[in-house]
Backbone:
């Protein structure tokens, strides 16, 4: 994996210069030939994929309400979307995928909904472990896992241990997670080290703080996707998404499929990622580059 997600390892447009080519990624394993999904995939520059995609999975309740069903049915239907997105990102050879499953604020929801969500999580982990192993996916948890029910912790621990030797994509699931909480926990960890004399205040920088986050060791998300059309980040990966490109779709999470993922990546590849800098338009003009191409250098 590249870098520690501290902002020091950014590359233009998430460029994968370490030899990622069309020959490495088996397109037929990602999208079947002759399908609409394959047409979208063929438009994507596989050498410039985002390294890390983060997704706010929103709209389960609205999906269920539109069908006159209980909210929990929306959560149940969303499992198919999780499965397809995880498999697709792994087959695209991404470094990481992070899904926002349950926030620290979600404890305010009705108890029945919370119990059902946790039950669905355990069911997913139990059923999908073999599939994670098949796709060489390493499973990780971001959030205060120790505050979850013991039965949930048990299933999570099985997934963590079972995939610990996998070397493909890292699949982070954000559970009992909040961006502010994560930063507070990181600061508290650093404060303990300072108090114990293992660290001085002067040694604390972005890299040090980043090493105490749940995504330590991974590149920051290049692309943040939110479903259901809401224009907010909902306390998700606040430190890590400082320079992420954001793509919002009105599609509700249970309806989200690989074609939507491909649309997000295509839009991402059209962006000018400047990280606070400027595009050298004179150089771009002299070399025949477009503004977009110059921004991707």
Residues:
């Amino acid at each position: 994996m590249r870098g520690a997600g501290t902002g020091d390892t950014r590359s233009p447009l998430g460029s994968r210069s370490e030899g990622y080519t069309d020959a490495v990624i088996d397109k037929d394993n990602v999208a079947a030939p002759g399908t609409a999904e394959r047409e979208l995939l063929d438009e994507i520059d596989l050498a410039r994929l985002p390294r890390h995609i983060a997704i706010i999975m929103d709209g389960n309740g609205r999906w269920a309400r539109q069908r006159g069903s209980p909210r929990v049915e929306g959560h149940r239907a969303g499992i198919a979307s999780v499965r397809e997105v995880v498999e697709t990102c792994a087959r695209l050879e991404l470094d990481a995928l992070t899904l926002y499953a349950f926030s620290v604020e979600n404890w305010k929801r009705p108890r029945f909904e919370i119990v059902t969500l946790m039950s669905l999580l355990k069911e997913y982990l139990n059923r999908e472990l073999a599939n994670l192993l098949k796709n060489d996916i390493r499973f990780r948890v971001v959030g205060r896992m120790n505050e979850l029910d013991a039965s949930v912790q048990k299933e999570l621990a099985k997934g963590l241990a079972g995939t610990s030797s996998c070397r493909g994509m890292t699949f982070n699931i954000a559970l009992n997670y909040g961006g502010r909480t994560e930063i507070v926990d990181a600061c508290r960890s650093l404060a303990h080290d300072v108090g114990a004399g293992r660290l001085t205040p002067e040694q604390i920088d972005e890299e040090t703080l980043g090493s105490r986050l749940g995504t330590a060791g991974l590149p920051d998300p290049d692309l943040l996707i939110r479903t259901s059309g809401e224009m907010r980040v909902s306390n998700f990966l606040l430190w890590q998404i400082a320079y992420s490109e954001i793509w919002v779709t009105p599609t509700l999470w249970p309806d989200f499929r690989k074609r939507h993922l491909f649309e997000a990546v295509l839009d991402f590849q059209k962006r000018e990622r400047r990280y606070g800098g400027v595009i050298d338009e004179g150089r771009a003009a002299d070399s025949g580059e477009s503004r977009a191409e110059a921004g991707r250098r």
Remarks:
- Residues 111-134 form the longest helix (24 residues).
- DSSP finds eleven helices and six strands in the chain.
